[in-house]
Design a protein that fits this description.
The complex is a heterodimer of chains A (390) and B (205). In chain A, 68% of the residues lie in helices and 0% in strands. Chain A is an all-alpha fold and 390 residues long. Chain A has one domain. In chain A, helix 5 runs antiparallel to helix 7, helix 8 runs antiparallel to helix 12 and helix 12 packs antiparallel against helix 13. The N terminus of chain A is likely disordered. Chain B starts with a helix and ends in a 13-residue tail after the last helix. The longest helix of chain B has 50 residues. Chain B has 2 domains: 143 residues, Four Helix Bundle (Hemerythrin (Met), subunit A) (Up-down Bundle), CATH 1.20.120; 40 residues. In chain B, helix 1 crosses helix 2, helix 1 packs across helix 4 and helix 2 runs antiparallel to helix 3. Classes of the chains: A mainly alpha (390), B mainly alpha (205). The interface between A and B is large, with 44 and 40 residues.
């Protein structure tokens, strides 16, 4: 009883602090609609406008990140293979390569196979994109800026990102091509299998921190001059993170788990029949999912917004709600996320693809039991620390 | 009637009904009504398509709209946890497994008259209920709870979590369920494992 209350204490205290209007769109449309006219504007217009502004910001932010990541992937793969990657577009190290690609993809013909299920062929990329944006909307930008504020945080992210599977299976089935269907079936089997170790390995830091909310998880890691990261406080979190990293690679269909697209076996897997902008939606989803998984990892193992920089700002007396602190938080978490993406690229260009039976064996026979052990260990450690030191 | 024409008429009627539901919600209740109209049409439209469609796979996919619509209605009622659990379990889990099964069955394009009649009855009742709700509630808020209590309901996720782990509330039931699910998981892996006697290595040619 007392253990539970003590453990919940810091979380509840943190939740009780005055939040104000945290949502980005609430504060934004306050700027856009002058105070004097506020009464005359209908509420539904304000609500829809807020949703529009929020969506625009989210899509803009993610699009720029994805375009940067596509360029980075080419440069990283080039340098790993002793090439230079793109060098001409834009001048400096081919920085405009992604923009050039975007223009190319937008102007390419949007083909639909003759015997495809037209409606579903068109809807599938939209479902894939919508689910990943839904999941990213649960991500905080800083302590005081959110798209959609909810206590559920990582639970919502897991739930919403799991619906991308349905879009991929729909794409594979609607294409009416055996390569697409093989890819879709592999995707469904792989994602369903790896959702278990992914969720279980996330339980270990959840035990250590005691909250689902990403912002609160970050706030609880704010001690030790910004370095009280969860991974340093509990020895079972390191193996849990390794399991999470492997499962996240499988969830995002990245090499060595890129069996759903497997370009050397299945042409391009579930996106074989897609062309132009619809094809690029699937790639967009892949990079956005990489960002999402890296950021969730950063929040629950590596301090989230916290780093020595935020520690220094705190000791210099900068308010948590100030603009400077917000931008530092945002920069910190994006840097951590991009470093995670860089690691994923490094792995992709280093390891060969695994076979489907090896994928299944690893997921069910090794990662799931190991994740259970990690959860048990992390829980016991927390109880032990609590019994000894408080 | 020509099946293709039938299909077009069906979707035209469905689109009109959706527009009417969303527009009616917007006019009577503003943004809240718009959201309710949207989620209600997802729920009803998805289930109707599930019954109407000739292809089993399309039926299965249309269930996604139904599940998402129900999740949206839960959010409108202030229960985020329930909504996300609905998405995680029904869309991410059950629907994926359902599709796996359905896609392995041969396509069956025969007319499903009985289910269509049943579907028409469900649709008439559901649509009538929706219209009745709009008319009845034109003067009051759509939310079941008054706004103050609704704001409290959105912070219930924390209360649910604490109630699950409270020794005087649900901790025993919660732990038993967790234990049961872990045993089920381990048992499923055990059953699905490949026994050495089942596995005959291929003869080297």
């Amino acid at each position: 009883m007392s253990l539970l209350q003590d453990a919940a204490g810091p979380v509840l205290e943190h939740a009780a602090r005055p939040e104000g209007d945290a949502s980005i769109f609430v504060s934004l449309h306050r700027w856009l609609i002058p105070e004097a006219f506020a009464d005359q504007v209908p509420t539904w217009f304000v609500a829809l406008g807020g949703i529009g502004i929020g969506l625009g910001l989210l899509i803009g932010l993610i699009s720029v990140t994805v375009m940067f990541c596509v360029w980075l992937e080419r440069k990283v793969s080039g340098h790993i293979q002793c090439r230079t990657g793109p060098m001409y577009a834009g001048g400096w190290h081919g920085w405009a390569q992604s923009i050039a690609d975007g223009v190319k993809l937008l102007t390419k013909e949007d083909t639909v196979p003759k015997d495809a299920d037209r409606t579903m062929f068109w809807i599938a990329p939209a479902i894939v994109l919508a689910s990943i944006f839904g999941a990213l909307a649960a991500m905080p930008i800083s302590y005081d800026w959110w798209f959609g504020r909810m206590d559920l945080g990582v639970f919502a992210i897991l739930a919403l990102s799991s619906t991308t599977t349905i879009g991929v299976v729909m794409a594979g089935w609607a294409s009416n091509s055996k390569w697409s269907l093989y890819g879709a079936m592999r995707e469904a089997a792989q994602v369903v299998a790896y959702e278990i170790p992914l969720g279980l390995s996330l339980l270990a830091p959840l035990f250590a921190l005691g909250t689902f909310s990403l912002g609160e998880a970050s706030a609880l890691q704010s001690g030790w001059f910004g370095m009280k990261w969860a991974i340093f406080t509990n020895p079972f979190l390191l193996p849990a993170f390794l399991i999470y990293a492997i499962a996240a690679l499988a969830e995002t269909k990245r090499a060595p788990f890129d069996l759903p697209e497997a370009e050397s076996e299945l042409v391009a897997g579930f996106m074989t029949e897609y062309s132009g902008i619809r094809w690029s939606f699937f790639f967009f989803e892949e990079y956005a999912a990489m960002l999402l998984m890296s950021i969730v990892g950063a929040f629950f193992w590596f301090g989230g917004f916290e780093s020595p920089v935020t520690g220094a700002l705190r000791s210099a007396g900068v308010e948590e709600s100030s603009l400077l602190f917000g931008f530092v938080c945002f920069g910190t978490v994006m840097l951590k996320g991009l470093f995670g993406i860089f690691l994923m690229m490094w792995l992709r260009w280093t390891l060969p693809r695994v076979r489907i039976d090896q994928v299944m064996t690893m997921g069910y026979k090794y990662l799931t039991p190991l994740a259970l052990v990690c959860v048990l260990g992390a829980a016991c450690w927390e109880a032990l620390v609590h019994a000894l030191f408080s | 009637m020509d099946p293709k024409l039938q299909q077009s008429v069906f979707y035209a009627v469905l689109a009109l009904a959706v527009v009417a539901a969303i527009g009616g919600g917007l006019i009577t209740h503003g943004a809240e009504g718009l959201a309710f109209g949207l989620f209600a049409s997802f729920t009803l439209g998805g289930s109707l398509m599930c019954i109407w469609e000739r292809s089993v796979v399309r039926s299965a996919f249309s269930l996604m709209a139904t599940f998402m619509g129900v999740a949206g209605l839960f959010v409108l009622l202030g229960h985020d946890f329930l909504a996300m659990a609905q998405v995680l379990i029904y869309v991410g889990g059950i629907l994926a497994l359902l599709l796996f099964g359905v896609m392995l069955t041969p396509p069956d394009l025969t007319e499903r008259k009985l289910t269509r009649v049943g579907g028409a009855i469900v649709f008439v009742f559901g649509g009538a209920g929706l219209v009745w709700n709009h008319v009845q509630s034109a003067t009051r808020s759509l939310a079941v709870l008054p706004p103050e209590e609704l704001a409290e309901a959105t912070t219930q996720d924390r209360a649910i979590g604490l109630a699950f782990l409270h020794p005087e509330q649900y901790v025993v039931a919660f732990e038993l369920a967790a234990f049961l699910l872990t045993v089920a998981l381990v048992a499923a892996v055990y059953i699905a494992r490949r026994r050495t006697e089942d596995f005959e290595p291929e003869e080297a040619a």
